[in-house]
Amino acid sequence: MNNHALLTDLYEFSMANGYLATLPDDRWAVFDVFFRTVPDDGSFVIAAGLAQVVDQLKDLHFTAADLAYLQSLGLYQPDFLDYLAHFHFTGTVSAMPEGTPVFAREPLLTVCAPLIQCQLIETWLLNILNHQSLIATKARRIVAAAAGRPVMEFGARRAQGPDAATYGARAAVIGGCASTSNVLAGQLFQLPVAGTMAHAWVQSFNDELTAFRSWAKVYPDSASLLVDTYDVLKSGIPNAITVFKELQAAGHQPVGIRIDSGDIAQLATAARQLLDQAGFPNAKITASNSLDEGVISSLLEQGAPLDNFGVGDKLITSGSAPVLSGVYKMAALTENGRWQPKIKLSNSRSKITLPGKKQTYRLFHPHSKTAFADVITLADEELTAPLTVTNVDPLSTFSQLTLTDFVAQPLQVPVVSKDAQPVETDVLAIQERTQKQLAQLPAATKRLVNPDAYPVYLSPKLAALQQELMKEHQQ
């Protein structure tokens, strides 16, 4: 694991240096991570990246080389550099576990720590959570479009660097992918790995049939053949069928074929007919080549008989919406030993922050397994009915509602504290959690196109506190 202590914007160090010089050194702060918009006009984001955040916090430190570099900038006082030399994180963190569907404006993660520490971890913390949550969210959409058919993550060569490829593969599996082609990710995170062959294999032999036979000789029990190097229907499928018959005669069961170019819907339909007629109804047809949720949905709507999908660049880069704009905003600060809520105002109502220490609850009707709303509260509130709540969306037509019958499930849990439970690191277990959490959401909220707005509310105390601080700072 790399130490990310210097993966920080310069102003974070400059502010931290200034805090040490001008403010009491016992001042603590609360910062929330949240986002305001969802990629691809979706309804929610799948939380991912928490395990890496926790690992970084446990080992965050500044090396002698780090300190020498910072000193060379000529910006910082000796006592600040000495502070960094002895730095370790002493605060607490609560967060929604990886795999949780998170809605706009809900605190995904909350840091409570000395102000300087809060400031120094902002950049890399957002970098990790924004990236992995973005890819997990895109994977969820693609997997949903595949409608139960396995999706393989094939994006390593198109990712924006080695870390993006490796942690992106992890996030893709959290979002629902069945496997990855990235062997390093497989090793690091115990992920299932998958892959077939490239066109170069076929081109390396004098003819396609010899290439297929050679592959089958080496991999007789996992023969999946790439059939579009020359001509899918005239040579690829006939040669694959010849080899499949030879494998079957030798006691092996062929896996199937992959189509990576052309009109996949028509080619897959024709290939299915040829494979069935030849006695291979169980041979799988895998599609790849610049797929995303829109293309996959279109292929299946056309009736393409596809069994698997290999998805690369559009997944690993979230090509149609390549940024999750998560932010990190102060919500409270100690002054003279007492917590004071903090707010950031804006001319845009949607950018006004939520003050104070908070918790988010997912609400269910008694005896129902489907959630109907979330409520963001102050951390010390108890939710009791009746509860008059305010919609967090400033553009909502119906801003207030009274809730009378509900069961509330808290979403944030301690992940760095004396009482924290170990963070789940088994990615397949996190994937299972994702599926369970998704099953609790209304079907209309999970639509890929024009999803129904899932309501997120503010509790009465939180709404009142926000209004009070707005009036105070506008006077």
UniProtKB/TrEMBL annotation:
Pfam families: NAPRTase, NAPRTase_C, NAPRTase_N. Pathway: Cofactor biosynthesis; NAD(+) biosynthesis; nicotinate D-ribonucleotide from nicotinate: step 1/1. Keywords: Glycosyltransferase, Ligase, Phosphoprotein, Pyridine nucleotide biosynthesis, Transferase. Residues 151-340 form the Nicotinate/nicotinamide phosphoribosyltransferase domain. Transmembrane segments: none annotated. Transiently phosphorylated on a His residue during the reaction cycle. Phosphorylation strongly increases the affinity for substrates and increases the rate of nicotinate D-ribonucleotide production. Dephosphorylation regenerates the low-affinity form of the enzyme, leading to product release. It catalyses: 5-phospho-alpha-D-ribose 1-diphosphate + nicotinate + ATP + H2O = nicotinate beta-D-ribonucleotide + ADP + phosphate + diphosphate. GO terms for biological process: NAD+ biosynthetic process via the salvage pathway. Its EC number is 6.3.4.21. GO terms for cellular component: cytosol. Residues 357-465 form the Nicotinate phosphoribosyltransferase C-terminal domain. It is an enzyme of class 6 (ligase). SUPFAM superfamilies: Nicotinate/Quinolinate PRTase C-terminal domain-like, Nicotinate/Quinolinate PRTase N-terminal domain-like. The keyword Lipid biosynthesis does not apply. It comes from the Bacteria. Gene3D superfamilies: Aldolase class I (3.20.20.70), nicotinate phosphoribosyltransferase (3.20.140.10). GO terms for molecular function: nicotinamide phosphoribosyltransferase activity; nicotinate phosphoribosyltransferase activity. Residues 6-130 form the Nicotinate phosphoribosyltransferase N-terminal domain. Catalyzes the first step in the biosynthesis of NAD from nicotinic acid, the ATP-dependent synthesis of beta-nicotinate D-ribonucleotide from nicotinate and 5-phospho-D-ribose 1-phosphate. PANTHER family: NICOTINATE PHOSPHORIBOSYLTRANSFERASE. Belongs to the NAPRTase family. NCBIfam families: NAPRTase_put, PRK09243.1-2, PRK12484.1. This is Nicotinate phosphoribosyltransferase. It comes from Limosilactobacillus fermentum (Lactobacillus fermentum).
